[in-house]
Design goal:
The chain is mainly alpha-helical and 155 residues long. The protein has one domain. It is 86% helix and 0% strand. The longest helix has 43 residues. It starts with a helix and ends with a helix.
Length: 155
């Protein structure tokens, strides 16, 4: 339910002029990573409910913003190929991740290491997104400055 509600709320919020979809996406990935990393530390029912709601809501946010954030990074002309590549890599890692989690459980006797490593990977992906966002923003700023200089010469 949290996933569905988050998709509706944040999909609407992302369409507002003041919203920064890339930042929303990155924060949702970061919260997913932090919540996944800390999830093995407590197994009470209340904690697991809070974890499930937070993870579900954050996953809903980044799922509904995938295409929007891709357009910000690669442009509308490259959306279909970049979306296909993204799904390819998601599929490959999902295919690898499940047996890897089973192997880690077999080796350690606990799923904690799996949750910790998955949490770290999600946090790192959000950090990479923020770095890419900053680089992309800087690139767009320089492009606008160059365009403004060229347009002044034509006037």
């Amino acid at each position: 339910m949290a996933n569905t509600v988050a998709r509706l709320v944040f999909g609407w919020l992302a369409s507002r002029e003041f919203a920064n979809q890339s930042i929303m996406y990155g924060i949702s990935l970061l919260l997913c990573g932090i919540s996944t990393f800390v999830s093995p530390f407590n197994d009470s029912h209340e904690f697991l409910v809070c974890y499930s709601v937070l993870f579900g809501a954050c996953a809903g946010v980044y799922i509904c913003l995938n295409a929007i954030v891709l357009v910000h990074f690669v442009g509308i002309d490259n959306l279909t190929s970049s979306f296909g590549n993204m799904l390819l890599f998601k599929g490959l890692f999902l295919l690898i991740g499940t047996p890897a989690a089973g192997w880690l459980f077999d080796e350690t006797g606990s799923y904690a290491i799996t949750f910790h490593s998955d949490g770290i990977i999600l946090c790192l992906s959000s950090v990479l997104l923020f770095i890419g966002y900053a680089l992309n923003k800087n690139k767009l700023k320089k492009s606008r400055e160059t365009s403004d200089v060229l347009n002044e010469g034509n006037v």
